[in-house]
Structure formats: structure tokens, C-alpha cells
Amino acid sequence: MRATATAQPNIALIKYWGKRDSLRNLPAVGSISITLADLATTMCVEFDAALANDVLTINGSENEAMLARVSRCIDSVAGEDRKAARVSSNSNFPIAAGLASSASAFAALLVAADAALGKKDARSVLASLAGRASGSAARSLYGGFVELRNTAADIELVELCAAPDWPLEVVVAITALGPKAVGSTEAMEISRKTSPFYSRWIEQQAQDLDEARAAIAARDFARLAAVAEHNCLKMHSVMWGSRPPMIYWNSATLACMQTVRELQSQGVAVFFTIDAGPQLKAVCEPADEARVRDALENTTGVEDILSSGLGEGAKRIADE
Ligand code: DP6
Predict the structure, then answer these.
(1) What three-state secondary structure class fits 71?
(2) Please, which residues have CB within 8 angstroms of residue 188's CB and are 6 or more apart in sequence?
(3) CA distance 34 to 140
(4) Ligand 1 site-directed mutation target among 66, 106, 184, most atoms within 8 Å of CB
(5) Percent of the chain topping pLDDT 90
(6) 19-42 tens-digit pLDDT
(7) Distance, CA 22 to ligand 1 centroid (Å)?
(8) Residue 91 · residue 59 · CB < 8 Å
(9) Distances from the Cα of 61 to the Cα of 8, 58, 74, 87, angstroms
(10) Residues 6 or more apart from 79 whose CB is under 8 A from it?
């Protein structure tokens, strides 16, 4: 009753921000993301009748803070009347810093728990359960360009384009480490309740999704760049207009944005996106990766750089 799985974080190009049902964690809008290849969370789940309670270890240290969420997520696939589990999670990138570590963690957790139970649930079922744990986690079950559609009763995931069919690169500029001041779950509820821009955000999302889907189908980088930057800045405008306001950027985030604008003016195919944290993600064509990386590395305030191509969704791997 033990299995290991790995999953990669995903970066939303058309963002999920807001819930239509908090209890079932259903998003208020659809979203489109890209799944990374080289950043990963490996999760091992072992059910053990000798254990009194679930035990969670994250990067080698026992973790109490995330335990309740992890236990609930295991219940969703195993049922509440189950053996306790020993869960160990290891990520090769900073966690809780706006790099979607919860997405790769919950996606890997569901694949590992399902395999440890010998259940073999369909990927769509695991994606729907991952979405209950964290909305963005549903997308990490799939690879390449992934659309999360809001259907009447649930969510539905569609792989719009496999990773090898449009091999883009993502360069992540880390501008500050450490957990963010307000987590996404709480922040999007504050936006829903208080931001004067929230209703327009919801109304316009279908338009942005259509535009991004068309750009991906046509492999039209400039068209995707325009709608992704627009959607990102619109989400941050919703956050800035909330009470209290949520400003996740720091001065280095803005400096990185400026660097991307300069690269664009030199004809480099690159665009930025930023989630609920201060890191800037620059998406570019593989031929420009070194130049984008170099420019961001030399931007004031950048502490570290990670880069990755696009990869596959969550999958079971051999036990370590
Ligand atoms: C800004 O998926 O972390 O990264 O469902 O409450 O766990 P919960 O939220 P979460 O929110 C992600 C927000 C975002 C945009 C995105 O990934 O689409």
C-alpha cells in the first residue's frame, strides 16, 4: 500500500481568481495554464495500519500546518474510513512562494494515493479531486497547454496542445523568498467580496479564454503574449482594488517587467506573467531562453533564476 508519484507546477496564462462555490472549491472562471518540465514535487504515500494518524514530511521536516489539507485530500480518494498514511513530499524548488507548489503537491498526492490504494481512477477523476484540494492543482494532472473548463456541476480539463507540439521555455525570476503575506484562497475571497473590478473580471474571462485558445491553436506567440499579459495585469488590478488591497509585487518584480518590455522592444519573443507572489515568469521561445535568462539575472533585485521547458502531467514513478 505504498506508491510514489511526481507532478510539475503549472503557470496560468489565463488566471483562476475567484470561486463560485467555496465548500466544493469550484472556480468562478475557467483558466489556461502551461505545465513545467523541470520543477517537480515527488510524493510518496504509504498506508499503514500501525499508524494512529497521518504523518506528513515536507522536504525532510515534519509539517503540521499542511497536514489537515493533505489528510482531507487523501480522504477524497480513499474515503474517510481508511488506514492512516505516511506522506513524504519533496520539491526541487521553493515552496509557498508563488511558484504553484501546492498545485504540483496535490496533483502528485492524488496520483500516489490512488496508486497506493490500487484504484486506477481515471485522470479526469483525479483532476477533479485535485481541484477540490486546490483549484490550480487540477491542471497539473495534464501536460503542455491545459484548459480548465467550468462545467455546470464540476470542472473539466482539456489538454489543448501537448508539450512537444509547442515547446516554449519559462524563465522564473525569484525576487523574494519566504511565504506570501496572504494565501491565494483567502485573497481571492477578499477580492470577490470587496473589489469593484471583480464582476468585470468574471464577465470578461470567456473572451480571454477564447483568445488564448485561438492563439494556442495557431501557435501565434504574439497573440498569446498580448492576452496573457492583459489577463495577468487584470487579475492584479482586481487584487489592488480589494479592501484590504493585496499587492504581491516588490520593486524587483517591476524591474523584471521593465526588462521584459526592453527585450520585447529589441524584437525578442517573450512575455511575462505573475501569480499571487513577487516572482515574475517570463515565457519565451527556446532560441531566446539564454538571452531572457541573462537579462533577468542582471535585473536589480533578482535573487535567483529557474528555467524550464514544458512537460507532462502528474504520473506514478518507481518507489525511491
Ligand atoms: C494566482 O489554486 O492556489 O495562481 O483553489 O484556493 O487553493 P485554491 O487557490 P490556488 O490559486 C491559484 C491562483 C493563481 C492563478 C492560477 O494559478 O490560475
Answers:
(1) helix
(2) 17, 18, 19
(3) 9
(4) 184
(5) 94
(6) 999 999 999 999 999 999 999 999
(7) 13
(8) yes
(9) 21, 5, 20, 11
(10) none
